[in-house]
Model the fold of this input.
Amino acid sequence: MADDHDHDHDDGQDDDVELDEAEARANVEHELRKRVALSQIRQYGDPALRMRAAEVLAFDDELGRVAERMIAIMHDADGVGLAATQIGVLRRFFVFHDAGEDRVLVNPVITLASKESETDEEGCLSLGPVRVDVERPVGVTIEARDAAGEPVSLELEGLAARVAQHELDHLDGKLVIDRTDPESRREALRQLRPRLLLAG
Ligand code: ZN
Ligand code: ZN
Done:
C-alpha cells in the first residue's frame, strides 16, 4: 500500500529558502531509489495482480531472502505494505509496517474482524496515482506465520489493520478499485487506461 501522507513542505511559504546541496543530492538519490523500486513492482494490467497466491509450504532461506527484498523495495518506494504477488511471486505472504516495525506475515488469515468499519482513502504501489475510498473493519485479528515458520497472532487497529487487509486482498487477486464505489472505480479506471496502453 502506498503511503498517502503528502509532504507538506511545499506550501509556498519557504520559496526563498534554498535546499542546501547535500539535501538536494539526498532527494535525487531518494527519487532514483524510488524509481528503481517501483520498476520492480507489477503494475495494473499485469496478470499476476489478479491471481490467487498459493499457500507457502516451505519456510526456507529463499522465503526469507524474498521477504527481505520486499521490505527493501517497500521502503524505497515509500510504501507501508507490499504483497508477494506485487513482485510476481504467487505465494501467500506480505510485508508491512506496523508501529515502527517491519513484519512478514505468511499464510495470513483474518480470524476476527470488528463490526465497526471506517472509510478512508487508499493508494497502492501497483496503481500509480490512483487513490480511492475503501470501507474496512477498523480492527482485525490475523493469524499467520513469520518467515521462520513460527505462529504469529496480531490484533491490529487503525492504519495497521487497514494496510494488512489491503495486502491480504492482494493475495486473493483483489485490488482497491474492486472495493470502492462505482463512480470512484470509473474515475480510477480512467486514470489507469493510459498506463495500460503504454504497458501493452
Ligand atoms: Zn519499515
Ligand atoms: Zn496494493
Summary: The radius of gyration is 18 Å. The longest strand covers residues 101-113.
